[in-house]
Amino acid sequence: MKKEIVILGIRGIPANHGGFETFAERLALFLVNRGWRVTVYCQGDLSIKGRNEDVWNGVHRITLPISRSGALGTIEFDWKCVTDVAARRPLTVLTLGYNTAVFSAWLRIRGIRNVINMDGLEWKRNKWRAHERAWLWVNERIGCLVGDLLVADHPEIARHLATRVSEKKIVTIPYGADRVKKADVAELQKYDLEPDRYAIVVARPEPENSILEIVKAFSARKRNVKLVVLGKYSVANSFQSEVLRAASEEVLFPGAIYHRPTLDALRFHARFYVHGHQVGGTNPSLVEALGAGNAVLAHDNVFNRWVAGKSALFFRAADECEKHITSLFESEEAVFMMRGEAVQRFEDEFGWEDLLRLYERVLSDSAGESFDSFSEEREINPARNS
């Protein structure tokens, strides 16, 4: 009899949106190849009128329609997923994120084992209004209570969750990425870029990702190199408009790029990667930068310090960021050393194969017996590199 898992909490696969979708796709395909029956719920757009089921690369997909867009549409989709799963009653569910954890209470009532990846400290993000923040804070608490096991993607997230529930209910597994050892330099021609003559930022255009500080820092002087800022920017958004106004002519905004060969090439051939995230756990974009062998300049906080390791440079304000940007474009020796240590950090902690095997253990029925030995096997130490 095949082991069965249902994955909730994402828009769907194949991945087209972000880190959770990418992770879900990799995990689903890994488990299918290991003999599991995997079902992933996908959110239909407003044009979808009815329920649809199909098979994608061995993964059973269930697409459910929604009647509205935005956050309300996501809430509607999550509720439909939970009620559908409760009727099917699989042995185990993996829920990615806690934004609608209140619905997971129904799974617990129905006796369905629910492993919840608790994501980051979502309720701390500045982009949320007071009532939205309150909703997320409450749902984090509910997720801690109703989840049978909580997965933290970062040791600091695990520490935080341990203030809510027993440590025995928490296991730490970071996100993974692919090691990029080569990439087509021809992809750079689309953006008039030269290898090693630009830095790159990959982040949502939000204040908490330090986008404005990074752009101001780079634009403080004429550099004869480029800064590539990926993401969707619009003058209709006040913050994004401020970023665009602050940018010199040497800053490029090519939009959001999901095409993997292009994204890999832009990372691989960059002089260095700038990571401004101030809130969160193990951010996938930072892990992918390590996997591409990027020297890293990151916002100085406990989350980024653990992920990037001791070789990275860190900043708290635009002036400090500007100083590091200048030094990284000037020092060949420093960049060479940082690239080598980034690869080593990646190989020590963030390769997909090991991490997906750990998830398989968590999701297996037998994994519930003891998570103490599980954590020791991985040698995840919250104090390391913090």
Automatic annotation (TrEMBL):
Residue ranges occupied by any DUF1972 domain in the UniProt entry:
3-178
Molecular function GO terms recorded: transferase activity
Q: Which domain of life is it from?
A: Bacteria
- Native organism: Paraburkholderia dipogonis
> Which InterPro entries does its entry note?
DUF1972 (IPR015393)
Keywords, comma-separated and alphabetical: Transferase
Per the record, a Pfam family? DUF1972
- Could you identify this protein by its name? Glycosyltransferase family 1 protein
